[in-house]
Amino acid sequence: MNISSIFLLVVVATAAELDISAYRKHKPSAAFKPVVLDEFAQSAIEDLPKSFWWGNANNTNFLTVQRNQHIPIYCASSWAFSSTSALNDRIKIIRKAQWPDIILSPQVLLSCSA
Fold first, then answer.
1. What is the distance between the alpha carbons of residues 68 and 4, in angstroms, rounded to a whole number?
2. Are 11 and 109 in contact (CB under 8 A)?
3. What pLDDT is attached to residue 114?
4. Is the confidence at residue 108, as pLDDT, over 60?
5. Closest to 100 (Cα-Cα) out of 55, 65, 68
6. Residue-wise pLDDT tens digits, 26-43
7. More confident residue, 88 or 109
């Protein structure tokens, strides 16, 4: 079982256990007062970089391979390709560009038999 199959199983299992009706009946508590534990560090606008690209962040490429959904034919699955591509990139960022890249399969999202 590959990581994309495991991810899909986790998503399906989580959705199956979620009781949406409980959220519809929820009423917010007026007694709840959020507490800020730490202030978010702020930088002056002049200190921020003029541009940023994950393809070259401190000479490290945090982007995974680009795939073309139109080969051999257009299949209207851009949602699956873009979702898995974004997740692939985020996994690579979390793993600090460690090799090998984790590449999730859009086919797992598209196949009813998976």
1. 19
2. no
3. 44
4. yes
5. 65
6. 677 788 888 888 888 888
7. 88
Tally the C-alpha atoms within 13 A of residue 5's C-alpha that lie toward its C-beta: 5
Domains of the chain by residue range: 54-106
Tokens 């994309």 sit at which residue? Answer: 4
Query: Which CB contacts under 8 angstroms, 24+ apart, belong to 65-74?
Result: 65/101, 65/103, 67/106, 69/106
How sure is the predictor about 79, in pLDDT bands with cuts at 50, 70 and 90?
confident
Measured CA distances, 71 to 45, 77, 79, 89 (Å): 43, 12, 16, 22
First-to-last CA distance in the chain? 11
Q: What is the dihedral of CA 9, 10, 12, 14, to 10 degrees?
A: 160
Contact, 101 vs 84, CB < 8 A? no
Q: 């898995």: which residue's tokens?
A: 84
Alpha helices by DSSP H, listed for the chain, are 3-17, 20-24, 78-94, 106-110
Instruction: Identify the residue whose tokens are 């970089």.
Output: 49
